[in-house]
Amino acid sequence: LSIQAENSMPPGLQPAHKMSIVLFLERVYGIPDQETFFRLIEEAFLPDIRCATILDMAAVSESDLALALNRYLCNSVIPLMTSHAHYFEDCDHRSSLLESILHTIYRLSKCRSLTKNQLDSVCEFLLAFASTLKPSMMTPLLRKLVHDVPALTDQTIVPLRMLTQWYEHCSRYYTISATEEEKRLTMMLFQKIFDALASRVCI
User: Fold this and answer.
1) How far, in Å, CA of 121 to CA of 118, rounded?
2) Which SS3 state, helix, strand or coil, does residue 59 take?
3) Could you name the domain of life of the organism this protein comes from (predicted)?
4) CA–CA separation, 11 vs 44, rounded Å?
5) pLDDT(6) > 90
6) With 138 labelled, which of 72, 104, 156, 171 sits at a CA distance of 20 to 30 A?
């Protein structure tokens, strides 16, 4: 997506147009199978989500384009992916795609230009998506959360909710079958969270 200096929309298919297309696709045709769903994510949704994360890091994070892209993603794409989260179950053969989805949308949750409602939409997807994953798929993200969660900013509400649900969902696994690294990451996460909370109380 090109960005014009005058902060106007670029020519071509704009986020509002894409929003209408996604709505038409879902209501008229539906998403009949897992492969159709994954193809949409790979070829249409993930590239736009990556664009949103890039724009948020640039000086144009409050531009018309960036804000319209956020609206399109959080009002159309993310809710559609949430409502079809069952397609993520039992698809170990697409582990690379699952990993890409997890990390890309987690990066989206850190975008400063998201509104509260948009952040809630992203959070609901991540909760639904994570509930379909095997513990090994979450380990790379847990490594990131060790550094991100202790900040306790508005954005950390998403990983905190993810961690709460994740450890409730997989408590038996982490008690009995977790690897040494998974146990170490778990201890580090909880220690850093408690330390961050304690430091806030002392301020």
Assistant:
1) 5
2) coil
3) Eukaryota
4) 18
5) no
6) 72
Closest by CA to 18, choosing from 8, 26, 7, is 26
Q: How far is CA 97 from CA 3, 129, 140, in A?
A: 28, 12, 14
Structural contact between residues 185 and 146, judged by C-beta atoms closer than 8 angstroms:
yes
* C-alpha radius of gyration, the chain, whole number: 18
CA 116 to chain CA mean position, Å: 14
Residue-wise pLDDT for 189-201, tens only, equals 989 888 887 876 6
Residue 123 to residue 117: CA distance in whole angstroms: 10
- Distance of alpha carbon 84 from alpha carbon 58, whole angstroms: 32
Pick the closest to residue 74 from 45, 97, 44 (CA basis): 45
Please, are residues 66 and 55 in contact by the beta-carbon 8 Å criterion?
yes
> What does the chain come to in residues?
203
Classify residue 141 as exposed, middle or buried by CB count within 10 Å of its CB (0-12, 13-18, 19+). buried
Q: What backbone phi and psi angles, to 5 degrees, belong to 7? A: 65, 30
Nearest residue to 190 via CA among 203, 119, 177, 171: 171
Q: Does residue 156 contact residue 148 with C-beta atoms inside 8 Å?
A: yes
